[in-house]
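User: Predict the structure for this protein chain, please.
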Amino acid sequence: MNTWNDLKYKEIIIVDNKNLAKDAYILTFKRIFKFIAGQVVGLGINTLIEPRLYSIASGENDDYVEILYTEKTDGKLTPMLSLLKAGDEILVSSPFGSFTENNDSPILIATGTGIAPFISMLKSGKGRNAILVHGVSSPDYFYYADYLEKQLGDRYIRCCSKSHSNHYFNGRVTQYIQEHQVDPNKKYYLCGVAEMVVDTRDILISKGIPYRNILAEIYF
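Assistant: Here is the predicted structure, written as structure tokens:
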């Protein structure tokens, strides 16, 4: 776990903290640093609470940085984070880490807010001809849906486990991957809760995808 002593950070003024759906928010602040799609930043209210890491959901050249997060009632940070409004200050670390690459025709698989690094990739003009599979429990959590429909068209695949519709796959991401063909020559990027990442990776390997072609990032 990173501490504030491990990170370079600044106090930044919040531009917006928009409630998207139940317990889901997009935090926005002016970009003051360079970053690479797929990187994370540490966020905090003060240095007494350890920073929590969040993937950036903005393009590398965007004027503003967006952070997609969900409020956890038992969380140490998100209950306070959700109360912030425009004009409030927040601690933000310099970006670090790596996850995405600029491959042609990657397969991007996410659950919930795990979609953030893939949004950053697409907004940065990377991942040409990408296919994105996004799994959620309710259609309210199909974040950035309008943008993704415009950018990807039929290559934007939505999976919903607790609601049924003709507009998306009715079931979990893992079920969708199990029921559809996969290409062993593609790169697969997985981002989301640990159970999905592990199960999807196992399914892909069982279907002949080389381990080296699977990159995963788990969030908690």
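The two ends are 12 Å apart (CA to CA).
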